[in-house]
Structures are given as structure tokens and as C-alpha cells.
Amino acid sequence: MAGSNKANTTTVGEVLQAYQDYSKISGQLTRNASYSAIAVIWAMKGKNLITIEEDILFFFFLTILIDLLTYLIPSYIWMFYHRNIESSKEKLESFSLPRWINWPYNILSSLRYIFFGLGAWKLVSYLLAR
């Protein structure tokens, strides 16, 4: 965990590790909560306990789709970037990364949380209004 050293100092590696840990956990929680929301809605709808608006399900399905894209698109970007570096005439041991390299992941992660939040808000609002 960042800041775990004496005198509350940290390293760049610890900061990166903390970011990766929290990002991984929040992604897993969002994915699992979306699956759970879909399962609960389906179960209640199947037993005719509720009649739910389809756009509520849409937000949770969209969250899961964006979750897939959050990992799929950056993996291809990194793969092509790696191939480009490997095929360059210069064999570099270290180099600077372009600023945009993680933007797709960051944008898609943000969208995933936004759509999950919208779906959860609509679902809770719907259930409380009943």
C-alpha cells in the first residue's frame, strides 16, 4: 500500500501498485454488481413480482459491455505498441510512453462506473416508487 514506509513516504512503484489494486477491485465489484442486478431483476420479473422498465436493464448490460471493452481495447493498443517497439531498428531497453496510451482504459473505466451508477440509481428509484 502506498505510504506504508516509515515517515509516510512512498515510491512511484508503490503508487502505481495502489492504483492497479484499487482499479482491479473496483472493476470486479462493478462487474459483479451488474451481474447481480440483472439476475435479481430477471428473477423478480420471471415470478411476476415486478414489471421493470427495459432501460434499467440496458444500463447494466451496457456496463458489462463497457467492462469487456475496458480490457479488450487497451490490450490491443498495448499489443500493437509492443510490436511497433519490437520491430523498430533501434533496440531500446527503456523509452518514454506516449501520454495517450492509457486514455482508452481511463475513459472506458469512467464510463463503466457512470453507467453502473445510472442503472443502480434508476433501479433503486423504481423500487422505492412502488
Describe this protein with a few key phrases.
130 residues; mainly alpha; 3 helices; elongated
What does this structure look like?
With 130 residues, this protein is mainly α. The chain has one domain (35-129). The protein contains 3 helices and no strands. Helix 1 packs antiparallel against helix 2 (54-87), helix 1 runs parallel beside helix 3 (103-129) and helix 2 runs antiparallel to helix 3. It starts with 11 loop residues before the first helix and ends with a helix. The mean pLDDT is 83.
In short:
This protein has 130 residues and is mainly α.
**Structure class:** mainly alpha
> What does the main sheet amount to?
none
Task: State the helix count.
Answer: 3
Order of helices and strands: HHH
The strand count comes to 0
Strand content: under 5%
Identify the overall geometry.
elongated
Spatial extent as radius of gyration: 20 Å
Mean residue pLDDT = 83
Low-confidence stretches: none
Q: What is the helix content?
A: over 70%
Distance between the termini: 44 Å
How many structural units, i.e. domains?
1
